[in-house]
Amino acid sequence: MRRGIIFDVDGTILDSMIIWEHAGERYLEQLGIEAEKGLGERLFTMSMKEGAQYLKRTYGLLQSTEEIIGGINEVVTSFYREEAKPKEGVREFLEKQKEKGVKMTVATSTDRFLIEEAFRRLDLEKYFGRIFTCSEVGVGKSEPTIFHEASRFMGTTPEETWVFEDGLYAIETAKKAGYHTVGIYDAASEKDQAEVRESVEVYLRDWKGAEDRLREKL
How distant, in Å, are the alpha carbons of 18, 63, 150 from that of 204? Predict the structure, then answer.
């Protein structure tokens, strides 16, 4: 039987959720401003524009909303270009799947250029046939479109395809669409871990030993 794997990136392959939680704080830091406690959580629920407007209003920034957005985007870009690291053990898992001829793709909510910046530096590009992004397919992971596009590219059906995710809502979407699911622990989704465990076929606290646990399935 053909096998394919679709991987999320942030919180799954890369230990990178921290930048989405703290980009606003880092931006203020560059301006010599100390951020309020819990700023990351507050901004996480806002759009980029709303977050920039909040920073401008709350901290009396002289920069325009567009300049603030640009500054935050540069903080995020620099993180992927220079700092983002793969989760421990994931490279070994990817290498094993490549050796076995398992087809692999990426399905991410993050912009392509950010993922490519990190993957190029970390030499991870070679493992994936293609990167699919929500912005390019036109819908987020609340719909299964991105998973269908990725499996179609690999030539596998949902029944032959495993989706590796850390986010509960994406796991539920993939599961309802008929994909096998693997839940990856990430601290950013700590509050959802009980539900993640219940929703997936395989739950991984980390990537160590993942190959052994999934040997009979992949």
Answer: 20, 44, 22
The answer to whether the CB of 10 falls within 8 A of the CB of 44 is no
| Phi, psi torsion values for 147, nearest 5 degrees | -70, -40
Predicted model pTM? 0.90
Question: Which residues face 132 on adjacent strands?
Answer: 107
One-letter amino acid of 148? H
- Edge-first strand listing for the sheet containing 161-165: 131-133, 103-108, 4-7, 161-165, 180-184, 202-204
Q: Which residue has the tokens 């010599």?
A: 32
Rounded Cα distance between 80 and 59, Å, is: 26
For residue range 156-201, what is the model confidence (pLDDT) as tens digits?
A: 999 999 999 999 999 999 999 999 999 999 998 889 999 999 999 9
SS3 track for 13-65: CECCHHHHHHHHHHHHHHCCCCCCCCHHHHHHCCCHHHHHHHHHHHHCCCCCH
Environment class of residue 110 by beta-carbon count within 10 Å: exposed (0-12), middle (13-18) or buried (19+)? buried
CA of 36: how far to CAs of 21, 22, 29, in Å? Answer: 13, 11, 11
pLDDT score at 2: 63
